[in-house]
Amino acid sequence: MAAMFSQNPLMNGPNYSVNDAPRVNAPEGAREHRFDPYTDNGGSTLAIAGADFTIMAGDTRLTSGYSINSRHHPKLFKIGGTTADQKDATIVLSVVGFAADGEALKERLDAICKMYRYRHGKPMSVKACAQRLSTILYQKRFFPYYAYAILGGLDEEGKGAVYSYDPVGSYEREQCRAGGAAASLIMPFLDNQVNFKNQYIPNSGEGHALQERERRPLTRTEVETLVKDAFDGAVERHIEVGDGLQMMAITRHGIEEVFLPLKKD
Amino acid sequence: MDHRPQAWGRPRDDVYGAYDASYLQSGGPKTATQSPIVTGTSVIAIKFKDGVVMAADNLASYGSLARFTDVKRLRPFLSTSVVGFGGDVSDMQFLTRHLNELAIDEAYEHESSPTSSSEDDPNAPPAGQLNAANLHKYLSKLMYRRRNDFDPLWNQILVAGFDSASAPFLASVDLRGTTFTSPSLATGFGAMLAQPIMRRYAATEADAARLTREEAVKVVKECMKVLFYRDARSLDRYSIAVVTKDGVELSEDEQLERQSWAFAERIKGYGTQTV
What we know:
heterodimer; A: alpha+beta; five-stranded antiparallel beta sheet; 4 helices; B: alpha+beta; Glutamine Phosphoribosylpyrophosphate, subunit 1, domain 1; eight-stranded antiparallel beta sheet; 8 helices; 13 strands; 30% helix; Ntn_hydrolases_N (chain A); Proteasome_sua/b (chain A); cytoplasm (chain A); proteasome (chain A)
């Protein structure tokens, strides 16, 4: 019976949960207006790793609420080149979510990769850069960068590498990943078209006996078509995605960048 | 009896009881600016082929009260850039003071080296002096730092001028440090009312590069009129600035011209009308 009544001198009654305990210090009728340091600036990103290349893409719309702030705001950044123009960069970072945090994250990672190049006389490997990015994100675990990052490049063997992150630094190397506002629209499409999920060989059996379609690495033209299709689909169904498509192809010859139009409505 | 000098002239504790010091502490957490108080409404700007036009009205509102009617919200910087402020006016004044210091430092820094600008363009600002792109970067870092400290400067800021490649530059920063650029930009109500009009004339950078100065000024003045018609926190007196390679031309006492309130007669269904 005693446990039913509060140890709290405030109330000699039933215990309150943490959230709705009455606050003694708040003045009567005080309205608490707290500054919200985060917003969502919409947009979507996508990365697919091929046998000897990686394709990264993102739309170029920047929104706040129902307003379009900018129709040309890139979400893909070359990281760790020798100079500011990033001519000799080998790694690409895409960020989506809260634009200011994304920008800050990009600048941190770029500065770190540049310092690495300066100290060691060689560019950072994607694997090392991926681990470092995770550390940067986790360092702000209790005031996170509200950004979904994807890192793309070529691994030590020259194969395409895609690393995807959550805002607090959990990461994983994957074959493909979609991020941002339309991630839930694009990811299932990618599962089906890149990893051939839910694709079976016709008449190969019943139920569990059905044979899965064998996976094969996609060619670069196939991937580029897939990316455009994925974004055309997302633009049709998500209001925060559109205007332009920024696409970067990372190969052993360097990074090629193209901008394609998307619907502006 | 307490004879220590610290106690001289104070009410005796043994007579009146110990002083209740709780009155001296406000209690609760530090309260930084958690909401804007005196505010300025929209700032609008559009790029044209050899510069940028920016405008903002001269009103500072206190809630719905039109409190100060002669507040200048456009500020030239080093006579090569213009900064326009929307949002809290006291934070604007803080930033203005800060930019003054910065401008003075810059002026001293480049005093010794007489205009070392490139030969082909005598009007370009001296190399190394802060241009609009640099200034925008500086302000965005400042705003982002303040948001990280949970002590934001409650403004949305437009910066107009030229970048390092001497191309017209226009960009925005807000209280969270979010930055973006576009051929035309507008803050506050202007984002809903003026931006669609300006985008008709400068949807892309290529469109903006074809726009003449006269056209750009005309569009901006038209937008200021639309804003005065529909934004209840706006004024018909405004400032307009034109930034070109020759410098900043700022007029701080413009009056809206050729207003037409004929449409108001057709609006029915509000207030005390009986028809």
